Amino acid sequence: MTSDSRLPATTGRAIALAAGISALALALAEPLVAGGVLVGIGLSATVGLSAGSYHRVAVASALLPIVVLGGVAVIGPAGAPIAALSALVGVVLGLAAGGVLAGEPTPIALLRAGAAALCSAVVAGGAALVAVWIDTLGGVGPALAAVPLLTGDGPSGLFLALVAAVVAIAAALFLVPPAAFTVPSRRDTYDRTRNALTRAAGVATVLAIVVLAVLTVLSVFVPPLEWLVDVIAGSVVVRGSIAAVTVVAAVVAVSATAIRATWLQTDGRRNGAVAIIVGAVSGVGLAFAGVWSLGSVETNVVAVAFGALAIVLGAGWLAAWLYQGAVLRGDAPTPSTVLAGSLAAGGAIAGGTVDTVLLDLETVRVGVATFVPIAAALFAYDVGRYGRTLASEIGHEASRRPQLVRLGWSGAMAGAGVLVAALGLAGAAVLAPALSVPATAGVIGALVAVGGGTWLLVR
């Protein structure tokens, strides 16, 4: 986070406090908002960590899919659109509150967070396919037993397994950047060693295939050799070892390809690609293992959850990319503005759930969830604009006294607005049986206009 984009400390804490109170008010109407706020705070923390050292980048990349999976678990089962929208508002609210306290995300933090989201999306998509495959085969046990036999049964399947293994090994050896193991002055030695290892793997594979082919041909004339060929071709140890080597080499080759691509797209000497990839794979792997260890979760549910995780992470990458471009252009909305918008949206959503207006506890609950966030949105926008002016003219270490005066004034005006809105709601409850809906709306609008006009005149 950049220090020059931060609001003065007192102003930032006041906005965060107003956001917290409003989140509690919104939770009165929809409890899922609280879960969404926690997810948003977690996302804000991962973005903040992405601006640090590579160790922190790895931790942030590992936490990102876990936090997003928590968001999917919160919003996914919501069912009703209003509940899902309220939870999404909570996510944006928590994310913006973190930005208010720490400052606008830097372009490098957004770049790394977006890359982690994209990498995690790919891995999560793969995890979803694995879950579908496990569900198709009827469980983990049958799936594990089927892995060594993916290339087929018998000697022909073993031939294909050996060829796939040597191709994966060669790809891993040639795709891994030489800088990962040596320095430029010893590049020739590294090349000779790599080529020798590749030739050795190829020769060993050819010898194994030739020996197996000879035994297969001789088994036609010597029946006992047929039993030996079947034992070798169907051995779980042999086929499992070959499958494990193939999978590891393929993962290394794919990761090396991604690392090479990121290095070609950067002008700097340092790159967080390795930390991002390691963290993303570890995070999705831990999330997959954690969900699977619950036992009570059905396989098809796991597949749907990680498919949704991949989609959300892909959307997160797009959002981070677009926001990074806005930050570089200097036209990105400030965290306080985003926070104000999310509060206003949350209040509007809560207000939209009202069917009838009566003087009862339900009306009070919905009224609090509607008016408090909207008043807090006005407060956050007004105070945030004042804080940005103060930070640009004096700095984020400005004196507390003028901030407290402005906070008290804006808070009092916001409280007065809540009072006027509450009176309007009470008037609507009283007048609703006697007046038509348009007339009642006119009365409420008049009261709100009087309150807003008074605020503007006093200012």
Structural write-up:
By secondary structure, this protein is mainly alpha-helical. The protein folds into 2 domains: 9-104 and 334-458, no CATH class; 122-321, no CATH class. The protein has 16 helices and no strands. The chain has helices spanning 9-29, 32-49, 54-75, 81-102, 107-137, 140-146, 154-175, 187-218, 223-234, 236-264, 273-293, 299-329, 335-351, 361-393, 400-431, 437-458. α2 crosses α5. The longest helix is centred in the last third of the chain and has 33 residues, at 361-393. The radius of gyration is 30 Å and the shape is elongated. The protein starts with 8 loop residues before the first helix and ends with a helix. The model has no long low-confidence stretch (mean pLDDT 79).
Question: What keyword list fits this structure?
Answer:
single chain, 459 residues, mainly alpha, 2 domains, 0% strand, elongated
Short recap of the structure:
With 459 residues, this protein is mostly helical. Helix content is 81%, strand content 0%. The protein folds into 2 domains: 9-104 and 334-458, no CATH class; 122-321, no CATH class.
The assigned structural class equals mainly alpha
Number of strands: 0
Instruction: Describe the global form.
Output: elongated
Largest sheet: none
Count up the helices.
Answer: 16
Question: What's the helical proportion of residues?
Answer: over 70%
Q: Give the N-to-C terminal Cα separation.
A: 34 Å
Total count of domains: 2
Poorly predicted ranges = none
Topology pattern, helix = H, strand = E? HHHHHHHHHHHHHHHH
On the 0 to 100 scale, the average pLDDT is 79
Approximate strand percentage: under 5%
| Rg from Cα | 30 Å
